[in-house]
Amino acid sequence: MRLPLSWLFEYCEPVMTPRAIADRLAMTGTEVGRIHHHGVSELEHFVVGKVLTCEQHPNADRLSVCTVDVGTGTPSRIVCGAPNVAAGQTVAVAKPGAVMPDGTRLKKAKLRGEPSEGMILAEDEVGIGTLHEGIMVLDDDLEPGTFLAEVLPIATDVLELEITPNRPDCLGVYGVAREVHAATGAPLAPPPWEGIDLGEPSGIDGVTIEVRDPDLCPRFTAVAFDGVTIGQSPWWLKQRLMASGQRPINNVVDITNYVMLLTGQPVHAFDLDRIAGGRLVVRRATPGEQITTLDDQVRTMPPDGMLIEDAEGPTSIAGIMGGVRSEVHEGTTRVLIEMATWDGPNIHATSTALGLRTEASSRFADGLSPESTVEGQAVALKLMEELTGATRRPGWIDVAAPGVADPEPVVIRLREARVRSLLGVDVPLARQAEVLRAIGFGVADADDGLDVTVPHWRRLDVTREADVIEEVARLAALDDLPATLPTGRPGARLTWPQRVRRRAEDVLVGRGLQEIAGWSFASPALLDRLRVPEGAPLRRVVELENPMSEEDAILRPTLMGSLLDAARHNLAHGAERVALFDSGTVYRAWPQNEDGGERPTPVDEHHGLGALLVGPPQDPTWRTPRPPAADFFAVKALVGAVLDTLRVRWEARPSSDWPFLHPGRAAEIVAGDGERLGFAGELHPLVAREWDLDGGAAFAVDLGKIAARAPEVPVYRDVTTYPPVRQDLSLLVGARSAAEVVAAIRDAGGRLLRDVSVFDRFERDGEVSLALHLAFAAPDRTLTDDEVNGLREKILGRLADLGVTPRG
Q: What is the pTM of this model?
């Protein structure tokens, strides 16, 4: 719901900034999505002007050249295209420097060769209406130079409220004003329906109402008017509708929308002359029954959907949208204003079945009180008489189920001890009574607390003592509620896989990566963009039966899509490099069982950890002003940091199983027992181009498999009592990879080989040489030279079997 603050301030105006009002509402339970500005800006540049002369533009048939007194002593020369501009008019003027509703800043200009120092304004150019054909002509008694904001409502801040379903009373401006009054203490003006008496519901001559299903329509009211003149609404009403997101149409339709936005009660206006037979019947629709609604759509009613019909058939879908046959038009002179109460679940079901959601259906679906119909009728009566020149017909119609029009009051005992026990703080009884009265509750003293009478607009959600205590808490005790630890046994600790997940994520955060939260949904086109061939395991996707859109039709089989999307977004918004990771679930369908048996779970679902680097992995420094872009070794180092922290043995093996990675610059990550954990590599150039990236490197691993191999209890190993013996090897390796050489050395060195690492690589004439650092140590003694030399010879013998020889 959009709430223009200028409208709110008519009923409650706290001395606070819009942001402070939004924060206070949010802290008392009314969430504010955002604050935006409606209308124009730089208000000092919008003034009242007087057209002194108006002459034909010498170079354009449809333009006029005007001189306008704007109160500065020197008339402004303004070119105007409106057909109704004329000398002697008092008009609205925007001077150079003014900011229009679309954000455009007005400047001096030349139009077809003639200079123009501003703009004479139409109502749509200041956001108070939709008319553009002619300029606004103001009252002649206004002085030139008067700020336009003092004359017309050309600007206001707007709060976008996210009202919860249990608070339909806050779907009206006055309902929110009541909340602001209670939250801030600012004075509250009387309700707009106060003092307007409809009199006794004695019926309307020539109009009959029949409600056949009172269980779905507890109350139906109607007031009739003669002598209605259809025309434009005043600017103040148009502006409030525009700022609230409604489009002005004509004065009668605008009144119905205005009353709904002000009171929360939807309104419908019938052309009384178009109600065949002067009789309206409220009933359930018959199977397959159709109606043409105001949007010229023919709609087939669902079972139990409610209709309003006259002697010729359906005229409206009850609580949702009116029909074409009875709508108000330019020639309307007699109007019937209808306000009713409908069963919320029925309206919600009908709206969903028709795929038709309106402002009225949203309010009725949440549940409105029957008393709101009378309040809304009172406001509509006043506006119809003031703005349309109408005369009210004597009497009005009120068809209500037994007990609905005059219900028994709901009184709840609020015990002071119960308030203390639930909230944990003492709220003085006088303070409890104060905040409850502020939001419209009746309060009377009782022996052990207060007797609280629930107002009609809160009867649906305040039904017990705890609900009243909640009202006291949010308005009087929220800031004072203590922070306490839960009593009893502590909650469950994190599971081992959860601890592994957090530790792995912390490793990446510690290395400067930023976490993203990617969507679990993905587009089927993702796999084509990743160059995944038909028949590949990644093609076994899980399709959604009822996706939100075609772009979200499958569950993601890989983390790469969300990482690539996030990288492109950040780079497009000015980031020079990105280092992102995503930790979340990926989904794949199981392959068909050869024996036809069922899988233990319907979907192969596991928790993945993926990262993507684009650009340099670190910021430039004075020593490295242009760090190299991230490559295979950068992401391999990240994988190593994660797995080494979790004490999982692993190695990287060359692999070409991932089509979205660069051939020859990709590897599979394999655990010590040979199980594949994931991949690491540079992006394929075609994939990088698909996402508008200049290269990049990525990895992804299965955290479930890693958790199964990570030791829960670390084992201590003495590293200081018996120092290691260190030696270096220089080897000619031929076509062997470094991984193969290291694996052979580890196998031959046995348990006395503590560590082996490559520290240099040299290539000449196609001959590759590796330099490795070896460390030997025993847990119970210092190794002798003979023991180390024996291990060295054993290692060299094993390498010789691979064709690897010492370098001379």
A: 0.67
